[in-house]
């Protein structure tokens, strides 16, 4: 039943979040901002504070790092726009929660459960969804098994979300390019 799903991809500091927030604001209606980052250290806490400060005060914020789809379904009243920022942090949290040894197949399966929950929530909602994620597969091959597992799981998640999305936007230097659909 979900009305539309937009996936916004790009590298670090490519303008993904700002673009997604502008799209959510332009859509109008009640916005639910789903924040997946945790303040694990002082630097991350400061980043989170900056992100909070630039969001409109009228937006409802849901800070959640696990079972995100179920948490979104529990929000009332139902939002008109759901902006999830970002899959990158959700993937990291999912990876950290896994017991050793961490392998790419186990990491992909674990994040797959989160994606399943998100897509179920999307299908049950009448909201416009915008999901932000980093593209991490264009650089060097990570040196460690953990780094490779992270790259693999996020790349797989991005492919899965892109397949189901109505629109996929690639951000480079603050400029959007449509890979699928069109604004």
What does this 3D model show about the protein?
The structure is a single chain. By secondary structure, the chain is an alpha/beta fold. It has a single domain, classed as Rossmann fold, CATH 3.40.50. The chain has six helices and seven strands; from the N terminus they run βαβαβαβααβαββ. A seven-stranded mixed sheet has the order 3-2-4-5-1-6-7, sandwiched between helices. Strand 2, helix 2 (42-54) and strand 3 (60-63) form a beta-alpha-beta unit. Helix 4 (87-97) crosses helix 6 and helix 5 runs parallel beside helix 6 (145-164). 33% of the residues are buried.
Q: Looking at this structure, what is the CATH superfamily? A: P-loop containing nucleotide triphosphate hydrolases
Distance between the termini: 20 Å
Strand order of the largest sheet: 3-2-4-5-1-6-7
Radius of gyration: 16 Å
Q: How helix-rich are the residues, as a percent range?
A: 40-55%
Unreliable residue stretches: none
Shape, per Cα inertia axes: globular
Report strand %. 15-25%
SS elements, strand count: 7
The CATH architecture designation is 3-Layer(aba) Sandwich
The overall number of domains is 1
CATH class membership: Alpha Beta
Helix-strand pattern, N to C? EHEHEHEHHEHEE
């Amino acid at each position: 039943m979900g009305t539309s799903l937009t996936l916004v991809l790009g590298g670090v500091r490519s303008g993904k979040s700002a673009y997604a927030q502008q799209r959510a604001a332009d859509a109008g209606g009640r916005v639910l901002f789903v924040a997946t980052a945790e303040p694990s250290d002082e630097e991350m806490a400061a980043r989170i504070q900056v992100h909070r400060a630039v969001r409109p005060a009228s937006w409802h914020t849901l800070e959640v790092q696990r079972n995100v789809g179920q948490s979104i379904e529990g929000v009332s009243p139902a939002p008109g726009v759901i902006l999830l920022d970002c899959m990158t942090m959700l993937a990291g949290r999912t990876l950290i929660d896994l017991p050793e040894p961490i392998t790419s197949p186990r990491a992909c399966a674990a994040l797959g459960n989160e994606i399943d929950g998100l897509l179920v929530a999307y299908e049950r909602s009448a909201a416009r969804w915008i999901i932000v994620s980093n593209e991490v597969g264009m650089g060097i091959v990570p040196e460690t098994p953990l780094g490779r597992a992270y790259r693999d799981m996020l790349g797989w998640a991005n492919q899965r979300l892109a397949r189901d999305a109505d629109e996929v936007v690639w951000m480079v230097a603050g400029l959007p390019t449509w890979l699928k659909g069109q604004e």
